[in-house]
Amino acid sequence: MTNRTVRLISASIGFLFIAAGGICAGQIAHFRRQGAAEMQRTLGALARDAAVLYSRGADAEEIRAAAERAFAAQPGLAALTVRLDGRLAYATSVSPRFLAPDTNNTQTIRTFSPLLHKAASAAFTTERGQSGVLTIAFYVLQPDDIFRALSVSFVLIFAATFAAFTLLYYLTKYRSGEPQSENPAAAPTPPDVPAETVAENIDGTDGGGEFAGEARLLESLADSLADAEARDAELSLAVADIAPADSTAARSVLRDKGTAFALESGTFAFILQGADTERALAEAKELYMALDGALADSADADIRIGISSRFSRAVGAAELLSEAEEAVRQARADADTPIVALKTGKPPPDGAQAESPSP
Length: 359
Prior knowledge:
This protein is of the alpha+beta class. It has helices at residues 3-55, 60-73, 143-176, 195-203, 214-231, 248-257, 277-294, 317-333; strands spanning 77-84, 87-93, 99-101, 107-109, 117-125, 131-139, 235-243, 261-264, 267-273, 302-309, 339-342, 352-355.
């Protein structure tokens, strides 16, 4: 996960929180506007009722009963006062904190939370010619409205946070599946090494730990023979006996030619997929020429190659290896034939085919 991605996700989360706060504030403002409109309707209705009551000289009990009905019908109503000709005629509230003494030691309405409450007044005139003023305190924002606004904001914040962290998880998972390098110049690309070569470095038994040993050869050869038999394809095994055994140049040639298996010091085997005897001889000749060139400066250089082919037979790995080693022994016995192939796997010399590479 790059720093740029982290910054982008952090900024997105911050923006979503700001957006959720803005939505919450917008909903609260909407509910306050609705409450203010309801307050004006309630104020007008109460002013008309007060004018009727005081016009016909209603007693205190009737006025109190009318006020109780008004409070019960309108939950937003918090306090109510009526003044006739400047003097307090009636006052009531849902809580004493909404009423406070005025300069004339009477009661007047007060509001203590501008966000939740508002106060408004309406004038009226009775049929008796009295001038009246009705004042109310009103909850323009109900607790339920605040809860709804906060709930919507909480849901938005939760959804935004969940989406952001889900995105972060999948981005991290996707990025972790790719090879990463903070400094490409300091992390060179590894060479394209076949899987068999990796095994060679672990299982080598030729003393240098560079090539796989006989056990790995027999395992790979058995698999290759089974595949060749299933496809009715040819396969050959070449065994090269090289002196001097510790030649670095010869080992370099063996690595270049393909997967080599070390049988013993200076003896190596190659599985030639799809190669019949003729093709195996041609490949062995190329290997011989390459090794001969690599060992040109060595006075003790000696190269012998033996080949055994499947030749459409049902033959085991150990048997094919034994035939190739026998071909190497035949090549050692004749200085003029450094490459010997056993075409049919029969004991030499009947099945032996020798070849002397051109210089």
